[in-house]
TrEMBL record:
InterPro entries: P-loop_NTPase, TPR-like_helical_dom_sf. Keywords: Coiled coil. This is Putative ATPase. Residues 531-561 form a coiled coil. It comes from Saccharothrix australiensis. It comes from the Bacteria.
Length: 694
């Protein structure tokens, strides 16, 4: 921010750079203060994976998709066919060749991955965030998610690609509302249940001989396929016209530049003969190409292939990939990529095709599977702990002893740590649930606990309820009442925020009982404090005040300065509501001193002290002090990126403002932030901005 002469001979303040929310100048301010706020533009998502390389053929299918797209109303086309036939490649090729001005949404529904398919609520969360809804504003309930999705898509020309769908029920909630939208669904099933939604079903069969040879020629490059036309025709016939088999066969030729096509045909013929003795499976062409490529891998790459297929999520980075090996660099992945056994979906992000993943899993024995999976889950825990300590260095944690010390862990600061947790959220959740299903209860609980910084700052209420549920189950099976008390408390906090007051009271009471049984006075006090805040929400002010005053005494006994500071914030707020602002300010001054003296800084809660202090100054009629302290609080909350804290500071400044125009400006900023957060208070603030009637 710079200060210079304005056109009227006075001073002006210029703001340079990008700022989200309001901006506050610290120091001496002359003249009026004006806030300028540009409403955020709607996001245009671009979620489609890259168009497939070497795409060929499918002219009839593309023409049919064009015909469906040209008809009135929403386009809904279901591309159905066997695994590996190229349904996704066709959908991506067609989609990339068309213009959808309001963006593209994509999700792999994992209907045939061998693991748990993606639930509609998970996919809707992905879409809503892609459409610009902040994570904390995504509703927890599926019905509310679907309603918000329909509202956001009602007037948009969107392309939605739902890949690998298992059923019509999985697809229906993900259909956009606009009749200008286009939806492509790929599935191994026909999904006839979508016909009532206006779906057109397209059966996708194997490529013809000419298209198969063309694909092989493009993938291999040079003139090898052209020179050996007859063996090439035999090779594509052995691959059954399935693009996935053709790509792997082509990779075999690319990695053996001196081999003839005829030699690969001979190898593949031997492999098919071996498999035919073992099985008459209709996927013989695919299995034979997979087996041939697998047996050609170096031992380290072959081990990685077998073990990496146990990864709990749908895509992954190189560091977790090599965690399953005792001594290997991340570039060992290149051998799998070059052999078309692994796909690099974007920079340093990989995934298996469903058929390849299932084949790879079949190569590993039970002991190798369990060890590889456990190593990957522990890697995720260790990496998330790095992020956790960067974001919330002050919080208490239960210890965990690793079976194998994880390597290639990230180096993260606070901002990077929160971003890492967000990027790996789905994998961390999958890891925690898989750990629970395998009976690794302590590890499962730790994976639930380590996500707390993400849930604290980005909310993710739907995920939060699920994470707490599996954390409670893991703690009970583990038999640790302290761990159980922590998760019960968090579930109570989530239910309080979502307005589920009866559930919140039940969880918080259970948390307090668990902690008390374990002799954990600190944990019992934490749950008791959450119950006091629930009482405040219910309007039970006298009971809440008594509880908070008792908790101040307990925290002094425990010499728990940070917890005492938090309790004093809540007590100061409650005393203000009870019209005892002078006592409240005394409590807040002590809280400020405590936070200023912490060994591990807690800037967010220090800023909360200032917000409540400004509110109490206003309640005593000291508007000037309320404005001064409120401006400092707002600056701190904006610097921390806390929308909720900034909204509360704007509210205090609006109340304290003597100039109606300035008050309205603060109310508008508070409304923008609360609307972004999906807070119920937005309705109340909106009413404050409406001019009086009559």
């Amino acid at each position: 921010m710079t200060t210079g002469s304005g056109g009227d001979g006075g001073l002006r303040n210029d703001l340079t750079g990008s700022v989200i929310g309001g901006a506050v100048q610290a120091g001496e301010v002359h003249g009026g203060i004006h806030f300028h706020h540009n409403a955020p533009q709607p996001m245009v998502p671009r979620q489609l994976p890259a168009a497939p390389a070497h795409f060929t053929g499918r002219a009839d299918e593309q023409a049919e998709l064009d015909t469906i797209h040209g008809q009135d109303g929403r386009m809904l086309a279901v591309l159905c066919g066997p695994g590996g036939v190229g349904k996704t490649a066709l959908a991506l090729h067609w989609a990339h060749g068309r213009r959808f001005p309001d963006g593209q949404l994509y999700v792999d529904l994992a209907g045939f991955s061998g693991g748990e398919p993606v639930l509609p609520g998970e996919a809707l969360g992905l879409f809503l965030r892609g459409l610009g809804v902040p994570p904390e504003r995504v509703p927890a309930e599926l019905v509310e998610q679907a309603a918000l999705y329909r509202s956001l898509t009602a007037d948009r020309a969107l392309l939605v690609l739902l890949d690998n769908a298992l059923s019509a029920a999985q697809v229906r909630p993900l259909l956009p509302a606009s009749d200008r939208s286009a939806v492509l669904v790929t599935s191994r099933s026909r999904l006839a249940g979508l016909i009532t939604e206006g779906a057109r079903l397209l059966d996708i069969g194997p490529l013809g001989v000419a298209s198969s040879i063309r694909l092989l020629d493009l993938a291999v490059g040079g003139t090898r396929v052209t020179r050996e036309r007859a063996p090439a025709r035999t090779l594509v016939s052995m691959c059954g016209g399935l693009p996935i088999a053709l790509r792997i066969a082509a990779a075999r030729l690319v990695t053996r530049p001196r081999w003839s096509v005829e030699r690969v045909v001979a190898e593949l013929d031997d492999e098919r003969g071996r498999l035919a003795v073992l099985s008459s499976s209709p996927e013989l062409s695919v299995r034979s190409t997979f087996d041939l490529s697998y047996r050609a891998l170096r031992p380290t790459a072959a081990a990685l292939y077998r073990r990496l297929a146990l990864h709990p999520g749908r895509d992954f980075g190189p560091s977790v990939a090599v965690s399953v090996l005792d001594d290997a660099a991340p570039d060992v992945l290149d051998e799998l990529v070059q052999g078309s056994l692994l796909e690099e979906v974007r920079e340093d992000r990989y995934r298996f095709h469903d058929l390849v993943r299932l084949h790879a899993r079949d190569q590993a024995g039970a002991t190798e599977r369990a060890e590889a999976l456990h190593r990957m889950l522990e890697w995720y825990l260790a990496a998330a702990q790095v992020a956790d300590r960067a974001v919330t260095p002050h919080r208490n944690r239960l210890p965990y002893e690793f079976t194998n010390e994880p390597t290639y862990l990230p180096t993260l600061d606070r901002i990077q740590g929160l971003a890492w947790l967000e990027a790996e959220r789905a994998n961390l959740m999958a890891a925690g649930k898989v750990a629970l299903s395998h009976g690794w209860d302590r590890l499962s609980w730790q994976l639930a606990d380590v996500m707390w910084p993400l849930l604290l700052h980005h909310k993710h209420y739907r995920d939060r309820l699920e994470i707490n549920d599996w954390g409670i189950a893991a703690a009970r099976r583990w038999g640790d009442p302290i761990a159980e008390a922590v998760m019960l408390k968090r579930q109570g906090m989530a239910c309080t925020t979502l307005g589920r007051q009866a559930e919140a009271e039940e969880h918080l009471t259970a948390s307090m009982a668990c902690a008390t049984r374990a002799g954990d006075r600190r944990g019992a006090a934490d749950a008791r404090e959450m119950l006091a805040l629930l009482q405040l929400q219910q309007g039970r002010l006298t009971e809440a005040l008594a509880e908070l005053e008792e908790l101040v005494r307990i925290n002094r006994e425990l010499d728990a300065n940070r917890s005492l500071g938090l309790t004093l914030i809540h007590l100061g707020d409650a005393l203000g509501r009870a019209e005892r602002a002078t006592e409240g300010l005394v409590a807040l001054r002590e809280a400020a001193t405590l936070f200023d003296g912490l060994a591990e800084p807690d800037p967010y809660n220090r800023a909360r002290v200032a917000v409540v202090e400004a509110r109490l100054h206003h309640s005593t009629g000291n508007a000037q002090e309320a404005a001064r302290v409120g401006a400092l609080a707002l600056a701190d909350m904006l610097a921390l990126g806390s929308d909720r804290g900034a909204a509360e500071a704007h509210e205090v400044l609006a109340e304290a403002a003597t100039d109606p125009a300035r008050a309205a400006e603060h109310w508008r900023h508070a409304l923008d932030l609360l609307t972004k957060l999906g807070s119920r208070r937005a309705i109340e603030i909106s009413a404050r901005l409406k001019p009086p009637t009559g």
